[in-house]
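User: I'm putting together notes for a lab meeting next week and I want to include a structural view of one of the chains we've been expressing. I don't have a solved structure, so I'd like a prediction I can at least talk through. The sequence is below, exactly as it appears in our construct file.
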Amino acid sequence: VAITATCAFVPARSAGISGGIACVLMHLAVPCVDRGHRLAGPVRATVITFINPAAVRMLGYDSPDALLGQHNHDLMHHSHADGTPYARHDCVLVNALLRNESVACSTEVFWRKDGTKFDVAYSGAPLLREGQYLGAVITFSDITEIKAAQDALRIREQQLKAIIELLAGSLRER
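Assistant: Thanks for the context. Below is the predicted structure for the 174-residue chain, given as structure tokens.
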């Protein structure tokens, strides 16, 4: 079962938004949490200003306090799957959101506090009000088990194809 989380980047002061946006996002988050989703919410620029307990656990933290005020990218998207650094200015997710564009990806990883990675599918979209940028929302799912099942299925398919080719070759030789 994929676990889902959401981060929202909301520069409240610069957009002239009251702190009520966080309350609205919290109320929107409740149904998601009830369905087992993991949420991390309003964030100023790419700085986390709200994260729910489920997302905290998913990322391996004990408390939201360790995440609040931190850059989302630096905490969980700082490296590629092979461990090489993933600079914030090269990040597809960050760049799309800064351009007020939506983005979706299922070929990257996020990182936990303990340094372990997990396969992730994420989507991000800007939050706009009357055409004015308010911030962005990112939803991500841990797809590690799904990828492992796909890999196992792919291996099994290759094995079955090899067996069929051997059998077909044996029949032709007769």
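A couple of points you could mention at the meeting. The beta strands are 3-9, 40-44, 47-51, 103-111, 117-129, 132-142. The first strand starts at residue 3 and ends at 9.

User: Perfect, that's what I needed.
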